[in-house]
Amino acid sequence: MLFMTSRRRFSDLSEQEVLALAISSEEDDARIYRTYSASLMVDFPDTAKIFEGMAEEEDEHRQMLIHLHKERFGNVIPLIRREHVAGYYARKPIWLVENLGIDKIRAEAEAMEADAEKFYLRAAATTTDAATRKLLGDLAAAEAGHQYAASGLEDKHLDESAMASEERTSHRQFILTWVQPGLAGLMDGSVSTLAPIFATAFATHDTWTTFLVGMAASIGAGISMGFTEAASDDGELSGRGSPLKRGFASGIMTTVGGLGHALPYLITDFWTATTIAGIVVFIELWAIAWIQNKFMDTPFLRAAFQVVLGGALVFAAGVLIGSS
Q1: Angle CA(21)–CA(24)–CA(25) in degrees, nearest 5?
Q2: Quick one: pLDDT at residue 87?
Q3: What is the mean pLDDT of residues 265-273?
Q4: Lower Cβ count inside 10 Å, N or C end of the chain?
Q5: Does pLDDT of 98 surpass 80?
Q6: Of the candidates 158, 187, 214, which is a domain's last residue?
Q7: Pick from 28, 48, 42: which is nearest to 106 by CA?
Q8: What are residue 221's phi and psi, to 5 degrees?
Q9: Exposure on the CB side of residue 158, measured as CA atoms within 13 A
C-alpha cells in the first residue's frame, strides 16, 4: 500500500516530466527488443533482425525526444520511469515472455506499441492544456509510427520462405520441448499404473485402499519421470529445449495419466468404481493414440493398436495378479 501511494499520478506530471517519462520508456523498449533479438538469433534469425530494427527505431525516437527536451527544458532530464507513475502501462518481465516461444514474443511486441499509443491518446484526451495535448498527441503518433515501421521491417526481413522456415522450426521446438515429453509421461502414467491399481482393486475390493495406492503410484511416477526427463538432457546439443519445461511436461502428464483411473475409486461401490476406471483407461489410451497421430505423424490405427494392446496386457496382468 505504501508503494502504491508513493507513485505519482499522470495528471500531476509536468510537461517536462511527461517528456522524461517518454524518453525512459523508449530506452526501456529498445533494450527489450534487443533482448528478444539476441534470444531469437540462433533459431529465428529473420525475426531477430526485425526486433533489432525495431530497437533502432526506438533509439531514433528517443534521440528526437531528447533533442526536444533540450530545446524546451535544457540538458537535465528528470529521472522518472514507468514504475513511478500510477496507471502507466507496464511491461511484462522479459523472462516471462522470451521462454514462451516466438509467437508470444511477436504478440507482446505488438501489444507494447499498441499500449503506448493508446495510453498517450487517452492522456491527451484528458488534458485541457493545448501544449500538453499537442505533446501527448505527438507521442501517440510516434508510437503509431513504430507500428508502421515494424510492419515494414517484417516485410523486409520475413518473406514467405523465411516465415515458413521459422514456423517449421517453431513447431519442431514445440514438439521436442512439450509434446514428446508430455506424451511419454502420459503413456507411462496411464499404462504403468494400471497393474498396481487394478491388482490392488481385485486383491482387496477396497476402493479407498485402491485410491491411495493409485495416488501414490501416480504421484511417485510423476516425480520420477519429471526428474528423469530434466536430468537426462540439458537440451544444448539435442536442441530439445529447456530441461525444466520438459521435466514439468513429463512429470505432470505422468501424474495425470495415473490419476485418471485412480480417482474413480473415490466411489465407494467397488464395481461402479472399477467400471468407470475401465472406461477412463479406454479414453486415456485412445487419447494417446490421437496425440501420436496428430503431433508425431504416427498412423492412427497403428498407434491405437500399439497403445491399446500394451495397455490391455498391463491391465490383464494387474487383474490376474490381484485375483490370484
Answers
A1: 80
A2: 63
A3: 94
A4: N
A5: no
A6: 158
A7: 48
A8: -65, -35
A9: 21
Computed over its alpha carbons, how large is the radius of gyration of the chain?
A: 28
42: domain CATH number is 1.20.1260.10
Backbone phi, psi, residue 321, to 5°: -65, -40
**Do 36 and 103 meet the contact criterion of CB atoms below 8 Å apart?**
no
Q: What is the rounded distance in angstroms from the CA atom of residue 137 to the CA atom of residue 70?
A: 19
Answer yes or no: is pLDDT of 158 > 70: no
Report how far residue 243's alpha carbon sits from residue 245's, in angstroms, rounded to the nearest whole number. 5
Joined grid coordinates for residue 124: 491527451
Same domain, 130 and 207: no
- DSSP-derived letter for residue 202 is H
Cell of 237: 546439443
299 and 202 in a common domain: yes
Clarify whether residues 211 and 316 are in a common domain. Answer: yes
Identify the CA nearest to 315 among candidates 201, 182, 181, 186: 201
Report pLDDT for 323.
76
Whether residue 112 sits in one domain with residue 175:
no
CA–CA distance, 126 with 18 (Å, rounded to integer) = 14
The DSSP secondary-structure symbol of 179 reads I
What is the pLDDT, as a whole number, of residue 1? Answer: 36
Report how far residue 241's alpha carbon sits from residue 160's, in angstroms, rounded to the nearest whole number: 26
Structural domain including 225 reads 164-323
Report the distance separating Cα 34 and Cα 48, nearest Å: 8
Q: How confident is the model at residue 3 (pLDDT cuts 50, 70, 90)?
A: very low
Measured in whole angstroms, how far is the alpha carbon of residue 81 from the centre of its chain? 27
Residues 219 and 245 sit within 8 Å (Cβ to Cβ): no
Helical spans, DSSP H, in the chain? 2-5, 15-40, 45-73, 94-97, 102-126, 130-157, 160-174, 180-192, 194-204, 207-232, 243-259, 270-295, 300-323
Q: What region does 297 belong to: left with phi over 0, alpha with psi -120 to 50, or beta?
A: left
Q: Are residues 180 and 317 in the same domain?
A: yes
